[in-house]
Amino acid sequence: MAEIKIKPKFLFIHPQGENLGIEYLSAVLKMNKFEVELVFLPQPLSNVAFKLFGSSYSIDEEKIKNKIDNFKPEIVCFSPFTSQYQWAVKQAEHIKKRYPSIFILFGGVHVNSVPNMVIKNPYVDAIIIGEADYQIVEFAKKFGSKELDTVASLWIKRGKKIIKNKLAQLPRDLDKLPFPDKDLFYSQIPKQLTNTTYMIIGSRGCPFACTYCSNNVYKKLYSGQNRLRFRSPENIIKELTEAQKKYHFRIVEFFDDVLTIDEERLRPLMKLYRKRVGLPFTCYLHPQLVTEKIIKLLKESKCSWLKLGVQSANEEYRKRFLRRFESNEDIIRASKFCHKYGLEFSLDHIFNLPGETEADLIEAVKLYTICRPTIINFGTLIYLPKTEIIALGLKHKILKQLDIKKINEGKDPVSMMANIDLFSYQYQRHKNVNISMYALMLILTPIVPVWVINFLLKIKIYRMKRRVPKFILIFFKAIGKLKAKQLYIYNSVFKMIFYYTFRKND
Q: How far is residue 168's CA from residue 150's CA, in Å, rounded to a whole number?
């Protein structure tokens, strides 16, 4: 390979929403004096909440072309989720045919799941596996030289040969990384859409490996390495205080898989947070890790929303097939603590789990009636590539081998459905179970008296054959959001639709 004496410019292309991973990559590249720009394509009528229409490839292609012509990047990067993968490869094809000299680099969740498939795409020149904060900088410094072929975590094509370099070690000291480059996205998003919430992650990795989750894939990918790493409280608070001065947001969203593993780490973080930030915040916590002291501490520190996963009410099913080892008593106890300290909380549930019975769904309604969360978030199971739950789907004949191919290629129709459609979606295996009726009961559970739910169970309303109309589910879902004071979520979606649909195109 001939030496090219250039300093490459990077162009990231991403649809629909802010991506923290891209922001971190941009930050480390800019810290090393590389130019980075973004084509952000929000696709307002094809967002995860509504998906009123499909993506407009022609409009997206024109915006990408204009940016490439003006910025003239050497490298174009994509970091798609599974639902975005087909869109991304379509754009890569368009770019490669129009600009054959541009280097196309892929990374991200979907790539980590099925790297052997992605690298074979004719319009992809290379992929980076795993966390790429340091690898993308090494890639940038060696781009155009023979040393490029040795970059750890990089898989690169050389003629008919694919060079697959060894996976790099995970970065251990997260405080050494720069703060995410929020301006990359925020510069293209109006202030009306950025002044509500600020997305931050104070750790990386998850101590769990639920069979339906992408962390199931990462556990295998980084086998032998400790994936769970933490930023120091001081580092987290520094990012928030600097960002607060700049962006004037009103809510902090911690996107850690589990904000804290123990009270010892949480206390200094919350102490600094109360003193220097003091804004309402939301976070995720595992039911097994909830204690009364932690709930009290979160509430005192202005936690306004706690998110807890449940997914199924059948303890044995959770343990055997989902690798979730919390008991129903853990879930009930966590709920009681939240009620005691007035902390709003949600429980997550997944419909269409393979092998789950109608009795399990009835048990779920009964469990949630005891817990009385502020809201219950639910949808249908989306099979992610290479996750262990796929084997269970095959066993129960919900999936066929052709379905696995579609899942790996990002063509599974369920993964591209809007949340509204997932409210009542049911696989063929569950054709005799009215999922939409259970969806209605989960929506109603937090907002009507307990006796109403008990009455609906007593008269076996779930045995009705007719599906609940979608507009009824949406109406009561909105009532639930109103009661939970979460209408700002819908408000943000409508603002995005209005701004990006009716504004003058740049």
A: 11
